[in-house]
Automatic annotation (TrEMBL):
GO biological process terms, semicolon-separated: regulation of DNA-templated transcription
Source organism per UniProt: Klebsiella variicola
Protein name according to UniProt: Transcriptional regulator LeuO
Source lineage: Bacteria, Pseudomonadati, Pseudomonadota, Gammaproteobacteria, Enterobacterales
Pfam families on file: LysR_substrate (PF03466)
Superkingdom of origin: Bacteria
Length: 104
């Protein structure tokens, strides 16, 4: 397995490797998901990556994208801001955009 370094703040990979058994399967830890995908493209390793990012690099790196063979964990995300920002039209647009993207 190739992952984003588990000790990095907000590591994408950490929720998927939450036990010692799962962490023992990790052969490579990169600093960024793009470097992880690059390593996967040149080896027999596998990685769990956001679908949009894997799709972006699939042709360039000749990646084979497969569905996860396990129950998908979910992550709770929060948006917070000062109440005055909630009345700003630009902020409202950004909020709607982020919520839409996160629902995908």
């Amino acid at each position: 397995h190739a992952t984003v370094a588990l000790d990095r703040y907000a590591s994408f990979s950490l929720p998927w490797y939450d036990t010692a058994d799962k962490q023992a399967r990790i052969a490579y830890q990169g600093n960024a998901m793009v470097s992880v995908l690059n390593v996967v493209s040149q080896t027999q390793m596998v990685a769990i990556a956001p679908r949009w990012l894997a799709n972006e690099f699939a042709d360039k790196l000749a990646l084979q994208i497969l569905p996860l063979p396990l129950k998908v964990n979910s992550r709770t995300c929060y948006l917070s801001w000062h109440e005055a920002a909630g009345r700003d039209k630009g902020h409202q647009w950004m909020e709607e955009l982020l919520v839409d993207i996160c629902k995908r």
